[in-house]
Design goal:
heterodimer; A: 345 residues; mainly alpha; MetI-like fold; 2 domains; B: mainly alpha; two-stranded antiparallel sheet; 13 helices; globular
């Protein structure tokens, strides 16, 4: 271990480094302390300039939280519930199908022709234009028709012995991960338009549970596939080979052996995805307006509604932060057992 | 060992279908819309203008301002995140006293909602009631206009970015440091290499691949910045801190200028791709030489 890099230092050097770390730690913790303290302040405790110590500088009160619970500053209770429901279900679905895909990419061989990918894109684009402009379908209808046509055509093309490069598992993984590079505004804005046009056909997706969850599942999948692949690669293959000798079908190997063995990894991935969905702002801003509004939107709204009522703002921010603080503690414990280190490589 | 079993399709297709649907639909949709003049308010039927939206966008000073702002935020904050992150990771790796406590504290910021963090930052940077200005005046400095002056506001946003995302850099680099082989350092010790020489001769080059990955991830993510700016300054004062995503949001969601916004988001996608590819191309020779 390169721990020796510091053992060479003089005791004073070590102390200096420790002080530097402590300074960064203080910078990290101070804003958190500030928000916790401010949430218990009364109006005079805020307006009179910064105060730091409860019971000495100011008298703490629970009033901001009582206000929150009674819904004086927006429907916090329901929004909290929305965030929880959407977060848990999106994280669960994404972890489940992402883990399946990651396992497939680790243990099975895939071959995709580059040509098939091009055919898919061109047919989807061309089919959409033809259906929309020439055949007079509405835009979402045209998209929904072009998609399966392009998909089936590209699957067929993939079987044909065409020239051109063949992409393997690594490339498929790269494709998954590269979806994270997309600026979300491209998707969010287009999804908003698409959802609202589908809504005009009678199936409401804007401000609905299904629409929001679907979008979050798709956007978490790249991280899930990336993380889970490393966890599955760490599962010793001998166990699976032994099961295969006994003619256990693949899906039972996955459900009965691989999943239990990588439970910690699944749990960590689930929590990371949950944190991502819980904190997400842009999609929620575009895709919800009242019923399924999530916490970040409501918290951001506090700012414009209540300029200087810091006690209320802090309490609102705390509601959004506390579940993640608990999760940081849990993740920290898992990390100490060296679990996540393997995943990051 | 790679198996071949038809069941593999059952495993992979759900994920592929969802990602394909959610990424290809919007892509086609905004690509085609970007060639139209299409507004919802006032509702005029869409008209094909080909590259018209792109041309007017490229002539718009506000667009270039947004690019400059976003680039400044991304590059400065990622550079500082890397510098601070590497130092703290080195220290933690060397078993600084109290290192276990640091680890949990360090995990926190990156798990918190950027919106909530920005709200807290607003309070701390408040000129009259905030703790930061009070702290500074104790040293005899003047009250600083943190969020109302363009440059200071930009600096504050960068500071918040650093506060929130340095932990991520620390975490990744720490993981990398712990995989470095020990025998190299033992050999260096025998040669009487100083700590400084060991760092530049061994640690830094061996950490180059993971450093490249971390910086890449942070750079791409920083270019998408929106929520922090949205809450802290709303793009103001004026448009001094308006980032690309915020600009697109204002155009699309406030003015409902659909064709224009689609063109904007497409240019954004192209810009991100160019930055990503250039970055990888610049770095590739360095990475391969070390192998």
């Amino acid at each position: 271990m390169s721990a020796r890099a510091l053992t060479g230092l003089s005791p004073w050097g070590r102390r200096l480094v420790a002080i530097g770390c402590l300074a960064w730690c203080l910078i990290t913790v101070f804003p958190l302390y500030w928000v916790v303290v401010t949430a218990f302040k009364t109006p005079p405790g805020v307006v009179g300039g910064p105060t730091y110590l409860p019971f000495i500088d100011f008298t703490p009160t629970l009033q901001p939280f009582i206000d929150l619970y009674q819904g004086i500053r927006g429907e916090f209770f329901r929004t909290f519930l929305n965030s929880t429901i959407v977060g848990l279900s999106a994280a669960a679905i994404a972890t489940a199908i992402g883990a399946m895909a990651a396992y497939a990419l680790v243990r099975f061989e895939f071959k995709v022709r580059l040509g098939a990918g091009l055919v898919f894109f061109l047919l989807a684009l061309g089919g959409y234009l033809v259906f929309n402009n020439t055949l007079g379908f509405t835009r979402p209808q045209a998209l929904l028709l072009a998609f399966p046509v392009a998909l089936i055509a590209s699957v067929v093309v993939n079987r044909l012995p065409l020239p051109g490069p063949i992409l393997g598992n690594e490339d498929i993984l790269f494709w998954f991960v590269s979806q994270r590079m997309f600026p979300p505004i491209v998707t969010a804005f287009a999804l908003y338009l698409l959802y609202s046009e589908i809504g005009r056909l009678g199936f409401q997706l804007i401000d609905s549970y299904v629409g929001l969850t679907l979008c979050y599942v798709a956007f978490s999948l790249p991280i899930v596939v990336w993380l889970m692949r490393d966890f599955f690669e760490a599962v010793p293959i001998e166990v699976e080979e032994a099961a295969m000798v006994d003619n256990v079908p693949s899906w039972r190997i996955f459900v009965g052996i691989v999943v239990p063995m990588s439970m910690n990894g699944l749990l960590a991935t689930f929590m990371i995805t949950l944190a991502f969905v819980w904190n997400e702002f842009l999609f929620a801003l575009f895709l919800t307006n009242s019923r399924w509004q999530t916490l970040p939107i409501l918290v951001a709204g506090q700012n414009s509604q209540r300029g200087d009522e810091w006690w209320a703002i802090s309490a609102a921010a705390l509601v959004a932060i506390i579940p993640m603080m608990i999760m940081a503690g849990l993740l920290g414990r898992m990390m100490r057992s060296g679990l996540l280190l393997g995943a990051i490589k | 060992m790679m198996r071949n079993d038809p069941i593999k399709h059952v495993f992979i297709w759900p994920a592929v279908l969802v990602v394909l649907a959610i990424s290809i639909f919007p892509l086609i949709y905004s690509l085609t819309t970007s060639f139209l003049s299409y507004r919802l308010i006032p509702p005029i039927p869409p008209r094909v203008v080909w590259l018209g939206n792109y041309v007017s966008l490229l002539q718009e000073p506000r667009f270039w301002n947004a690019i400059l702002t976003t680039t400044l935020i991304a590059f400065i904050s990622v550079a500082l995140q890397y510098a601070i992150g590497f130092s703290v990771a080195l220290a933690l790796n060397a078993r600084v006293p109290g290192e276990r406590l640091f680890r949990v504290a360090l995990l926190l910021p990156m798990l918190l909602a950027p919106v909530a963090v920005a709200l807290v930052a607003r309070m701390i940077f408040n000129p009259t009631m905030g703790p930061l200005n009070q702290f500074l005046t104790q040293f005899g400095l003047a009250n600083l206009p943190f969020l109302t002056n363009g440059r200071w506001a930009l600096a504050c946003i960068i500071a918040v970015e650093i506060w929130q995302w340095t932990p991520f850099v620390i975490l990744m680099l720490l993981a990398g440091l712990q995989t470095l082989p020990e025998d190299v350092y033992e050999a260096a010790e025998l040669e009487n290499a100083s700590g400084w020489q060991q760092f530049w001769g061994i640690t830094f080059p061996m950490m180059l691949p993971i450093s490249a990955a971390v910086v890449f991830i942070r750079l791409i993510e920083s270019y998408k910045i929106m929520d922090t700016v949205f809450v802290m300054t709303g793009g103001g004062p004026g448009v001094d801190t308006e980032t690309l995503t915020l600009f697109a949001y204002q155009e699309g969601f406030k003015k409902f200028n659909l064709g224009y916004t689609s063109a904007l988001s497409f240019l954004f996608l192209v810009a991100i791709t160019i930055i990503g590819v250039t970055y990888l191309a610049l770095l590739r020779p360095h990475l391969e030489k070390r192998r």
